[in-house]
Design goal:
33% strand; alpha+beta; globular; 5 helices; 7-stranded mixed sheet
């Protein structure tokens, strides 16, 4: 069973460890590079977890942290999904599905109507995850031609 935990900036060491693992294991999946974060200090990690209005999640299988994701408000009624990663040990256990569903549910209860994300066009596994969650392709990412944009419409609290 997947257990999701909401982080605060006091959890910066856990976030750091997972993010560095993600950037090392799947460098093709992120705009950030391991070198950008490898020597980052505590303040930089805490600041990442202090993005105003964001939801930062870590997924556990048992006592092992195996995934991460964030939802970040980007404008009225819009949330962006960022920093999604599931470790090899967590893949195939519904971790990605749980993370994406939790962010979409949180976005809806926070008043958002749209959840968006960017994904590398060659990251077939991530695209399948997002399509399973109800995201649709909306076009190329003008800021990075190697990425596509996807979105999902969400509605208010259940």
């Amino acid at each position: 069973m997947v257990d999701l935990r909401v982080l605060s900036d006091d959890d910066w060491k856990l976030w750091r460890d997972l993010r560095l693992a993600a950037l090392a294991e799947a460098p093709y999946a992120f705009g950030s590079k391991l070198a950008d974060w490898h020597d980052a200090g505590e303040d930089m990690w805490r600041d990442r977890l202090r993005i105003a209005g964001a939801l930062d999640l870590v997924a556990y299988l048992g006592e092992e942290p195996v995934g991460m994701a964030s939802g970040v408000p980007t404008g009225p009624g819009t949330v962006e999904v960022i920093s999604v990663w599931v470790s090899p040990a967590g893949r195939g256990h519904g971790v990605g599905d749980a993370l994406i569903k939790a962010i979409a549910d949180w976005a809806a209860t926070s008043g958002a109507t749209v959840v968006r994300l960017s994904v590398r066009a060659d990251n077939a596994a991530a695209i399948r995850l997002y399509e399973r969650a109800g995201f649709i392709h909306i076009g190329p990412n003008d800021e990075d031609p190697a990425e596509i944009l996807m979105e999902q419409t969400v509605s208010g609290a259940p």
